Amino acid sequence: MAYSVKLKAGDVFPSLMATLLDSSTVVLGRPDGKATWQAVFVYRGKHCPLCTEYLNEIERFLPAFEAAGVGVIAVSADAEHQLAEHMDKLNVSFPIAYGLTEDELKTLGVYISTPRSELETDHNFAEPALFVVNDEGNLHVVDLSNNPYVRPELNALTRGLAWIRDPNNHYPIRGTLDY
């Protein structure tokens, strides 16, 4: 039986770069602008209608992420042309990156699937994941799914992040006990 290494809460988020459609690169987990934390949403790719729906839903919650001081980025293993085509179905203002390699997906510890056919996509792809990286570069929130039907509910997520970020709550990283 093969085992995959999963990133754990409290781990340092790996330094991975991804490319935006304007050909600039971003370091995942490093927020820009006013945000001091970053939510990195890993999505399956252009072929997934549930991803399209979820990415568009994230856009509606951007003000709540911003109010909590959390920047947003999404990334997949799609190629540049696939993201360019996907943008026709997306109505988002947050950055979306492409081009994660299978080795980089393994570094993130996401579940990886093979396409059911060439009609679906032409490469292995990540299943949905969310990594919320705090201002120290550590994983404060980790959510991994092995299918497209289970993802964080964004209203609860943004409310929770606002609560975690409130300095009066002194909320630590949870789930760090090793066994």
TrEMBL record:
GO molecular function (one): antioxidant activity
The Thioredoxin domain, residue ranges: 7-166
Entries under Pfam families matching the protein: AhpC-TSA (PF00578)
Taxonomic superkingdom: Bacteria
Entry-linked PROSITE patterns: THIOREDOXIN_2 (PS51352)
Coiled coil: none
UniProt xrefs under InterPro entries: AhpC/TSA, Thioredoxin-like_sf, Thioredoxin_domain
Record protein name field: Redoxin family protein
Record organism: Vibrio agarilyticus
Lineage: Bacteria, Pseudomonadati, Pseudomonadota, Gammaproteobacteria, Vibrionales
